[in-house]
Design a protein that fits this description.
Number of strands: 20
Largest sheet: 8 strands, antiparallel
Distance between the termini: 22 Å
Order of helices and strands: HHEEEEEEEEEEEEEEEEHHEHEHEHEHHH
Length: 449
Protein backbone atom coordinates (compact mmCIF):
# COMPACT_ATOMS: atom_id res chain seq x y z
CA UNK A 1 0.00 0.00 0.00
CA UNK A 2 1.13 3.57 -0.54
CA UNK A 3 2.26 5.30 2.59
CA UNK A 4 0.44 8.45 3.50
CA UNK A 5 2.10 11.11 5.59
CA UNK A 6 -0.01 11.83 8.63
CA UNK A 7 0.06 15.12 10.44
CA UNK A 8 -0.31 15.29 14.21
CA UNK A 9 -4.06 15.74 14.03
CA UNK A 10 -4.55 12.79 11.70
CA UNK A 11 -2.34 10.57 13.84
CA UNK A 12 -4.32 11.48 16.94
CA UNK A 13 -7.55 10.73 15.08
CA UNK A 14 -6.21 7.33 14.06
CA UNK A 15 -5.39 6.53 17.67
CA UNK A 16 -8.80 7.61 18.91
CA UNK A 17 -10.49 5.50 16.24
CA UNK A 18 -8.38 2.47 17.19
CA UNK A 19 -8.73 2.75 20.95
CA UNK A 20 -11.97 4.60 21.44
CA UNK A 21 -12.59 7.87 23.29
CA UNK A 22 -13.83 6.15 26.45
CA UNK A 23 -10.62 4.18 26.88
CA UNK A 24 -8.54 7.27 26.19
CA UNK A 25 -10.39 9.12 28.93
CA UNK A 26 -9.65 6.46 31.53
CA UNK A 27 -6.96 7.24 34.06
CA UNK A 28 -6.37 3.65 35.13
CA UNK A 29 -6.70 -0.01 34.18
CA UNK A 30 -9.75 -0.89 36.29
CA UNK A 31 -11.95 -1.72 33.28
CA UNK A 32 -9.22 -3.46 31.31
CA UNK A 33 -6.95 -6.49 31.39
CA UNK A 34 -3.38 -7.41 30.50
CA UNK A 35 -1.37 -5.99 27.63
CA UNK A 36 2.16 -7.12 26.83
CA UNK A 37 4.43 -4.11 27.26
CA UNK A 38 7.82 -5.75 26.60
CA UNK A 39 9.10 -9.07 25.32
CA UNK A 40 12.40 -10.73 24.46
CA UNK A 41 12.10 -13.72 22.14
CA UNK A 42 14.11 -16.56 23.62
CA UNK A 43 16.88 -18.62 22.07
CA UNK A 44 19.80 -20.64 23.26
CA UNK A 45 21.16 -22.16 25.19
CA UNK A 46 23.74 -19.49 26.09
CA UNK A 47 26.22 -18.69 24.58
CA UNK A 48 24.77 -19.65 21.17
CA UNK A 49 23.41 -16.44 19.64
CA UNK A 50 24.39 -13.10 18.15
CA UNK A 51 24.88 -10.53 20.93
CA UNK A 52 26.03 -6.98 20.24
CA UNK A 53 28.67 -5.12 22.28
CA UNK A 54 28.83 -7.99 24.77
CA UNK A 55 31.20 -7.50 27.72
CA UNK A 56 33.47 -10.36 28.72
CA UNK A 57 31.13 -12.84 30.46
CA UNK A 58 33.81 -15.12 31.99
CA UNK A 59 33.36 -13.72 35.48
CA UNK A 60 29.57 -13.61 35.38
CA UNK A 61 29.16 -17.12 33.93
CA UNK A 62 32.49 -18.99 34.31
CA UNK A 63 31.03 -22.30 33.10
CA UNK A 64 28.41 -21.82 30.38
CA UNK A 65 27.16 -25.40 30.74
CA UNK A 66 26.43 -24.74 34.43
CA UNK A 67 24.84 -21.37 33.64
CA UNK A 68 23.99 -19.06 36.52
CA UNK A 69 24.96 -20.41 39.95
CA UNK A 70 23.50 -19.11 43.20
CA UNK A 71 23.60 -15.56 41.88
CA UNK A 72 21.29 -12.66 41.22
CA UNK A 73 20.65 -11.05 37.86
CA UNK A 74 19.23 -7.54 37.52
CA UNK A 75 17.76 -7.10 34.06
CA UNK A 76 17.00 -3.62 32.74
CA UNK A 77 14.18 -3.24 30.21
CA UNK A 78 11.97 -0.49 28.84
CA UNK A 79 8.20 -1.12 28.87
CA UNK A 80 6.42 0.55 25.97
CA UNK A 81 3.37 0.85 28.22
CA UNK A 82 3.02 1.43 31.96
CA UNK A 83 0.29 0.22 34.29
CA UNK A 84 -0.52 0.22 37.98
CA UNK A 85 0.14 -3.52 38.09
CA UNK A 86 2.49 -5.83 36.21
CA UNK A 87 3.21 -9.51 35.82
CA UNK A 88 6.34 -11.26 34.56
CA UNK A 89 6.89 -14.38 32.44
CA UNK A 90 10.04 -16.43 32.94
CA UNK A 91 11.13 -19.09 30.46
CA UNK A 92 13.18 -22.26 30.69
CA UNK A 93 12.41 -23.11 27.05
CA UNK A 94 15.97 -24.16 26.18
CA UNK A 95 16.94 -25.46 29.61
CA UNK A 96 17.71 -29.07 30.43
CA UNK A 97 17.32 -28.82 34.22
CA UNK A 98 14.57 -27.44 36.48
CA UNK A 99 15.12 -23.70 36.96
CA UNK A 100 14.58 -22.49 40.53
CA UNK A 101 14.05 -18.76 41.01
CA UNK A 102 13.41 -16.81 44.20
CA UNK A 103 14.12 -13.34 45.55
CA UNK A 104 12.35 -11.76 42.56
CA UNK A 105 11.84 -7.98 42.60
CA UNK A 106 10.69 -5.27 40.19
CA UNK A 107 11.52 -1.59 40.63
CA UNK A 108 12.08 1.63 38.73
CA UNK A 109 15.56 1.72 37.22
CA UNK A 110 17.76 4.57 38.48
CA UNK A 111 21.03 4.08 36.60
CA UNK A 112 23.77 1.48 36.37
CA UNK A 113 22.56 -1.43 38.49
CA UNK A 114 20.73 0.81 40.97
CA UNK A 115 16.97 0.97 41.60
CA UNK A 116 15.12 4.15 42.60
CA UNK A 117 14.88 3.95 46.42
CA UNK A 118 11.47 2.87 47.65
CA UNK A 119 10.26 1.41 44.34
CA UNK A 120 11.60 -2.16 44.56
CA UNK A 121 8.64 -4.54 44.97
CA UNK A 122 8.73 -8.29 45.74
CA UNK A 123 7.27 -10.60 43.09
CA UNK A 124 5.61 -13.90 43.99
CA UNK A 125 4.32 -16.96 42.14
CA UNK A 126 1.05 -18.56 43.23
CA UNK A 127 1.53 -16.91 46.60
CA UNK A 128 5.06 -18.32 46.98
CA UNK A 129 8.34 -16.36 46.89
CA UNK A 130 9.92 -19.05 44.71
CA UNK A 131 9.08 -20.94 41.53
CA UNK A 132 10.47 -24.04 39.86
CA UNK A 133 10.20 -24.08 36.04
CA UNK A 134 10.71 -27.46 34.36
CA UNK A 135 12.86 -27.85 31.24
CA UNK A 136 10.97 -26.47 28.28
CA UNK A 137 8.47 -24.68 30.54
CA UNK A 138 7.54 -21.16 31.54
CA UNK A 139 5.89 -19.45 34.51
CA UNK A 140 3.90 -16.27 35.03
CA UNK A 141 4.22 -14.36 38.27
CA UNK A 142 1.32 -13.13 40.33
CA UNK A 143 0.36 -9.49 39.68
CA UNK A 144 2.63 -7.01 41.44
CA UNK A 145 1.53 -3.48 42.32
CA UNK A 146 3.66 -0.61 41.01
CA UNK A 147 2.85 2.36 43.26
CA UNK A 148 5.29 4.59 41.38
CA UNK A 149 3.11 4.09 38.26
CA UNK A 150 -0.11 5.26 39.94
CA UNK A 151 -0.53 7.65 36.98
CA UNK A 152 0.60 5.45 34.07
CA UNK A 153 0.22 8.21 31.45
CA UNK A 154 2.43 10.64 33.36
CA UNK A 155 5.11 12.19 31.11
CA UNK A 156 7.59 11.45 33.91
CA UNK A 157 7.23 7.71 33.19
CA UNK A 158 7.66 7.93 29.42
CA UNK A 159 10.87 6.17 28.43
CA UNK A 160 11.68 5.06 31.99
CA UNK A 161 12.99 1.55 32.53
CA UNK A 162 12.15 -1.30 34.87
CA UNK A 163 14.77 -3.25 36.80
CA UNK A 164 13.78 -6.89 37.32
CA UNK A 165 15.98 -8.79 39.78
CA UNK A 166 15.92 -12.51 40.52
CA UNK A 167 18.05 -15.09 42.29
CA UNK A 168 18.95 -18.34 40.53
CA UNK A 169 19.03 -20.96 43.29
CA UNK A 170 21.66 -23.61 42.69
CA UNK A 171 23.00 -24.03 39.16
CA UNK A 172 20.60 -23.32 36.30
CA UNK A 173 22.34 -25.45 33.71
CA UNK A 174 22.00 -24.35 30.06
CA UNK A 175 20.44 -20.89 30.02
CA UNK A 176 17.54 -19.69 27.94
CA UNK A 177 18.41 -16.16 26.85
CA UNK A 178 17.90 -13.34 24.36
CA UNK A 179 21.35 -12.53 23.05
CA UNK A 180 20.92 -9.08 21.52
CA UNK A 181 19.41 -6.84 24.20
CA UNK A 182 21.38 -3.72 23.19
CA UNK A 183 20.78 -2.80 26.82
CA UNK A 184 23.15 -3.24 29.73
CA UNK A 185 21.94 -5.44 32.58
CA UNK A 186 23.85 -6.62 35.63
CA UNK A 187 24.74 -9.58 37.80
CA UNK A 188 26.40 -10.61 41.01
CA UNK A 189 29.32 -12.99 41.24
CA UNK A 190 28.48 -16.70 41.22
CA UNK A 191 27.77 -17.90 44.76
CA UNK A 192 26.80 -14.42 45.98
CA UNK A 193 23.27 -15.51 46.87
CA UNK A 194 20.03 -13.54 46.79
CA UNK A 195 20.59 -9.78 46.40
CA UNK A 196 17.45 -8.64 44.57
CA UNK A 197 16.06 -6.76 47.56
CA UNK A 198 19.05 -4.41 47.53
CA UNK A 199 18.34 -1.12 45.77
CA UNK A 200 21.98 -0.12 45.42
CA UNK A 201 24.47 -1.38 42.86
CA UNK A 202 27.28 -2.57 45.13
CA UNK A 203 26.43 -6.26 44.80
CA UNK A 204 26.24 -6.14 40.99
CA UNK A 205 29.76 -5.64 39.62
CA UNK A 206 29.31 -7.48 36.32
CA UNK A 207 27.42 -6.38 33.23
CA UNK A 208 25.85 -8.12 30.26
CA UNK A 209 24.31 -6.96 26.99
CA UNK A 210 21.75 -9.79 26.99
CA UNK A 211 18.57 -10.81 28.81
CA UNK A 212 18.25 -14.17 30.56
CA UNK A 213 15.15 -16.23 31.42
CA UNK A 214 12.71 -13.28 31.48
CA UNK A 215 10.81 -13.16 28.19
CA UNK A 216 7.60 -11.12 28.68
CA UNK A 217 6.19 -8.32 30.80
CA UNK A 218 2.48 -7.52 30.98
CA UNK A 219 0.94 -4.31 32.28
CA UNK A 220 -2.62 -3.74 33.42
CA UNK A 221 -4.21 -1.59 30.71
CA UNK A 222 -7.62 -0.32 29.58
CA UNK A 223 -9.69 -2.70 27.50
CA UNK A 224 -8.95 -2.36 23.80
CA UNK A 225 -5.37 -1.17 24.24
CA UNK A 226 -3.57 -1.99 20.95
CA UNK A 227 -0.54 -4.26 21.20
CA UNK A 228 1.69 -4.24 18.11
CA UNK A 229 4.21 -7.09 17.86
CA UNK A 230 7.20 -6.59 15.55
CA UNK A 231 8.33 -10.03 14.37
CA UNK A 232 11.69 -10.25 12.66
CA UNK A 233 15.43 -10.79 12.55
CA UNK A 234 18.42 -8.62 13.48
CA UNK A 235 17.02 -5.59 11.66
CA UNK A 236 14.08 -5.68 14.07
CA UNK A 237 16.28 -6.76 17.00
CA UNK A 238 18.32 -3.62 16.33
CA UNK A 239 21.83 -4.63 15.23
CA UNK A 240 23.97 -1.50 14.60
CA UNK A 241 21.59 0.77 16.53
CA UNK A 242 22.74 2.69 19.60
CA UNK A 243 23.62 0.69 22.71
CA UNK A 244 21.17 1.64 25.50
CA UNK A 245 19.65 4.15 23.05
CA UNK A 246 16.32 2.44 22.30
CA UNK A 247 16.41 3.54 18.67
CA UNK A 248 15.45 0.35 16.85
CA UNK A 249 12.63 0.95 14.36
CA UNK A 250 9.99 -0.49 16.76
CA UNK A 251 11.20 2.01 19.39
CA UNK A 252 10.80 4.87 16.90
CA UNK A 253 7.26 3.73 16.11
CA UNK A 254 6.43 3.46 19.82
CA UNK A 255 7.60 7.02 20.50
CA UNK A 256 5.61 8.39 17.56
CA UNK A 257 2.43 6.81 18.90
CA UNK A 258 3.23 7.79 22.49
CA UNK A 259 3.74 11.42 21.51
CA UNK A 260 0.14 11.66 20.36
CA UNK A 261 -1.62 9.60 23.01
CA UNK A 262 0.73 8.80 25.88
CA UNK A 263 0.67 5.28 27.22
CA UNK A 264 -2.16 4.02 24.98
CA UNK A 265 -0.37 1.68 22.54
CA UNK A 266 2.20 -1.05 23.25
CA UNK A 267 4.88 -1.86 20.68
CA UNK A 268 6.69 -5.13 21.41
CA UNK A 269 9.93 -6.33 19.79
CA UNK A 270 9.95 -10.04 18.80
CA UNK A 271 13.13 -9.92 16.72
CA UNK A 272 16.05 -12.35 16.98
CA UNK A 273 19.37 -11.61 15.30
CA UNK A 274 19.98 -14.10 12.48
CA UNK A 275 16.38 -15.36 12.46
CA UNK A 276 14.82 -17.00 9.41
CA UNK A 277 11.25 -17.57 8.27
CA UNK A 278 11.63 -21.29 7.52
CA UNK A 279 15.02 -22.38 8.87
CA UNK A 280 16.60 -24.14 10.61
CA UNK A 281 14.66 -27.36 10.16
CA UNK A 282 15.57 -28.52 13.69
CA UNK A 283 16.26 -26.48 16.81
CA UNK A 284 16.71 -27.32 20.47
CA UNK A 285 19.19 -27.47 23.37
CA UNK A 286 21.10 -30.21 21.56
CA UNK A 287 20.81 -28.54 18.12
CA UNK A 288 21.17 -24.79 18.71
CA UNK A 289 21.54 -22.21 15.97
CA UNK A 290 22.75 -18.61 16.45
CA UNK A 291 19.65 -17.19 14.74
CA UNK A 292 17.23 -18.93 17.06
CA UNK A 293 14.29 -21.12 16.11
CA UNK A 294 12.53 -20.34 12.83
CA UNK A 295 9.82 -17.72 12.85
CA UNK A 296 7.25 -20.40 12.05
CA UNK A 297 8.30 -22.60 14.97
CA UNK A 298 8.24 -19.72 17.49
CA UNK A 299 4.97 -18.05 16.53
CA UNK A 300 2.97 -19.58 19.37
CA UNK A 301 5.41 -18.64 22.14
CA UNK A 302 6.68 -15.31 20.83
CA UNK A 303 3.51 -13.82 19.34
CA UNK A 304 0.25 -15.73 19.77
CA UNK A 305 0.65 -16.35 23.51
CA UNK A 306 1.35 -12.67 24.29
CA UNK A 307 -1.43 -10.66 25.90
CA UNK A 308 -3.76 -8.43 23.92
CA UNK A 309 -2.03 -8.69 20.52
CA UNK A 310 -3.92 -6.71 17.87
CA UNK A 311 -1.29 -6.27 15.12
CA UNK A 312 1.80 -8.12 13.89
CA UNK A 313 4.37 -6.42 11.64
CA UNK A 314 6.53 -9.10 9.97
CA UNK A 315 9.95 -8.18 8.55
CA UNK A 316 12.03 -11.20 7.52
CA UNK A 317 13.62 -12.95 4.56
CA UNK A 318 17.16 -11.57 4.49
CA UNK A 319 18.66 -14.52 6.37
CA UNK A 320 16.63 -17.12 4.49
CA UNK A 321 18.24 -15.87 1.25
CA UNK A 322 21.74 -15.67 2.71
CA UNK A 323 24.36 -18.38 2.36
CA UNK A 324 23.47 -19.40 5.93
CA UNK A 325 19.89 -20.12 4.89
CA UNK A 326 19.93 -20.94 1.17
CA UNK A 327 16.13 -21.03 1.09
CA UNK A 328 14.23 -20.68 -2.16
CA UNK A 329 11.86 -17.82 -2.87
CA UNK A 330 9.01 -20.34 -3.03
CA UNK A 331 9.85 -21.71 0.43
CA UNK A 332 9.87 -18.24 2.02
CA UNK A 333 6.66 -17.17 0.31
CA UNK A 334 5.04 -20.42 1.42
CA UNK A 335 6.34 -19.91 4.95
CA UNK A 336 4.85 -16.44 5.11
CA UNK A 337 1.52 -17.74 3.84
CA UNK A 338 1.52 -20.43 6.53
CA UNK A 339 2.56 -17.95 9.20
CA UNK A 340 -0.18 -15.47 8.32
CA UNK A 341 -2.75 -18.28 8.36
CA UNK A 342 -1.60 -19.42 11.80
CA UNK A 343 -1.56 -15.88 13.20
CA UNK A 344 -5.12 -15.26 12.05
CA UNK A 345 -6.26 -18.58 13.45
CA UNK A 346 -4.51 -18.01 16.78
CA UNK A 347 -5.44 -14.34 17.31
CA UNK A 348 -9.00 -13.58 16.15
CA UNK A 349 -9.21 -10.21 14.45
CA UNK A 350 -5.45 -9.64 14.28
CA UNK A 351 -4.02 -7.34 11.60
CA UNK A 352 -0.97 -8.90 9.93
CA UNK A 353 1.27 -6.36 8.22
CA UNK A 354 4.04 -7.25 5.80
CA UNK A 355 7.21 -5.14 5.80
CA UNK A 356 9.41 -4.96 2.73
CA UNK A 357 12.96 -6.23 3.18
CA UNK A 358 15.82 -3.75 3.10
CA UNK A 359 18.80 -4.19 0.79
CA UNK A 360 22.00 -6.02 1.74
CA UNK A 361 23.59 -5.69 -1.70
CA UNK A 362 27.36 -5.24 -1.40
CA UNK A 363 27.44 -6.27 2.27
CA UNK A 364 30.85 -7.07 3.75
CA UNK A 365 29.30 -10.05 5.54
CA UNK A 366 30.42 -13.27 3.86
CA UNK A 367 26.90 -14.73 3.95
CA UNK A 368 25.17 -11.66 2.54
CA UNK A 369 25.36 -9.11 -0.24
CA UNK A 370 25.34 -11.34 -3.33
CA UNK A 371 23.13 -10.76 -6.36
CA UNK A 372 21.02 -13.89 -5.87
CA UNK A 373 20.05 -12.72 -2.40
CA UNK A 374 19.03 -9.33 -3.74
CA UNK A 375 17.04 -10.84 -6.60
CA UNK A 376 15.09 -12.96 -4.11
CA UNK A 377 14.64 -9.99 -1.78
CA UNK A 378 13.15 -7.85 -4.53
CA UNK A 379 10.88 -10.70 -5.65
CA UNK A 380 9.68 -11.22 -2.07
CA UNK A 381 8.97 -7.51 -1.74
CA UNK A 382 6.94 -7.61 -4.96
CA UNK A 383 4.99 -10.57 -3.58
CA UNK A 384 4.24 -8.67 -0.37
CA UNK A 385 3.19 -5.52 -2.21
CA UNK A 386 0.98 -7.27 -4.76
CA UNK A 387 0.08 -10.67 -3.29
CA UNK A 388 -2.93 -9.66 -1.19
CA UNK A 389 -1.63 -11.81 1.67
CA UNK A 390 -1.32 -9.06 4.26
CA UNK A 391 -3.83 -6.59 5.63
CA UNK A 392 -1.38 -3.84 4.69
CA UNK A 393 2.27 -3.39 3.76
CA UNK A 394 4.78 -0.97 5.27
CA UNK A 395 7.64 -0.10 2.94
CA UNK A 396 11.08 -0.13 4.54
CA UNK A 397 12.88 -0.71 1.25
CA UNK A 398 12.20 2.66 -0.38
CA UNK A 399 13.30 4.98 2.48
CA UNK A 400 16.58 3.08 2.99
CA UNK A 401 17.56 2.24 -0.62
CA UNK A 402 20.37 4.05 -2.41
CA UNK A 403 19.23 4.10 -6.04
CA UNK A 404 22.78 4.54 -7.30
CA UNK A 405 24.30 1.45 -5.67
CA UNK A 406 21.24 -0.68 -4.99
CA UNK A 407 22.41 -1.01 -1.36
CA UNK A 408 21.70 0.97 1.78
CA UNK A 409 21.99 4.75 1.65
CA UNK A 410 25.57 5.72 2.62
CA UNK A 411 24.50 7.69 5.69
CA UNK A 412 22.73 4.59 7.03
CA UNK A 413 25.81 2.31 6.93
CA UNK A 414 28.24 3.34 9.74
CA UNK A 415 27.40 1.39 12.88
CA UNK A 416 25.90 3.29 15.79
CA UNK A 417 26.61 0.64 18.45
CA UNK A 418 30.42 0.74 18.52
CA UNK A 419 31.26 3.26 15.82
CA UNK A 420 32.48 0.56 13.44
CA UNK A 421 32.31 1.13 9.65
CA UNK A 422 29.12 -0.88 9.25
CA UNK A 423 28.44 -3.97 7.18
CA UNK A 424 26.02 -2.57 4.56
CA UNK A 425 23.47 -5.06 5.87
CA UNK A 426 22.19 -3.54 9.12
CA UNK A 427 20.91 0.05 9.08
CA UNK A 428 22.28 2.34 11.74
CA UNK A 429 20.32 4.80 13.84
CA UNK A 430 19.60 6.98 10.81
CA UNK A 431 18.26 3.97 8.94
CA UNK A 432 16.05 2.78 11.78
CA UNK A 433 14.73 6.31 12.25
CA UNK A 434 13.73 6.41 8.58
CA UNK A 435 12.09 2.99 8.87
CA UNK A 436 10.11 3.80 12.01
CA UNK A 437 9.06 7.13 10.53
CA UNK A 438 7.84 5.46 7.30
CA UNK A 439 5.03 3.54 9.04
CA UNK A 440 1.51 4.86 8.50
CA UNK A 441 -0.21 4.43 11.90
CA UNK A 442 -3.54 3.80 10.21
CA UNK A 443 -2.00 0.68 8.66
CA UNK A 444 -0.90 -0.85 11.95
CA UNK A 445 -3.61 0.26 14.37
CA UNK A 446 -6.72 -1.92 14.47
CA UNK A 447 -10.00 -0.41 13.35
CA UNK A 448 -12.35 0.17 16.25
CA UNK A 449 -15.10 -2.42 16.36
Amino acid sequence: MKRRSLGEGALAAALIQAIGPDALAQGGPSAGGWATAWAASVQGPYPVGNPSAQPDQRFLFPEPAEGARDQTLRLVLRPSLWGQRARLRFSNALGTRPLVLDGVYAGLHLGGAAVVPGTNRPVIFGGSPSVTIPPGGQAWSDPVDLPFAAEPASPLLMGRKLAVSFHVAGASGPMTWHAKALQNSFGTAPGAGSKGAEEGEGSFPFSTASWFFLDALDMAAPAGTPVIVCLGDSITDGTASTMNGDDRWPDVLARRLDAQQPNRVAVVNAGIGGNQVVGPAEYGPDKPFPGGPSALSRLDRDVISLSGVTTVIWLEGTNDFSRNGNASLEAVRGGMQEGVRRLRAGIPGVRVIGATVTSALGSTSAAHGHKEQDDNRRALNAFMRDGNLFDAVVDFDRPTLDSASGGLKPEMVPESTTGAPGDKLHPNRAGYLAMGSAIDPTAVLPARR
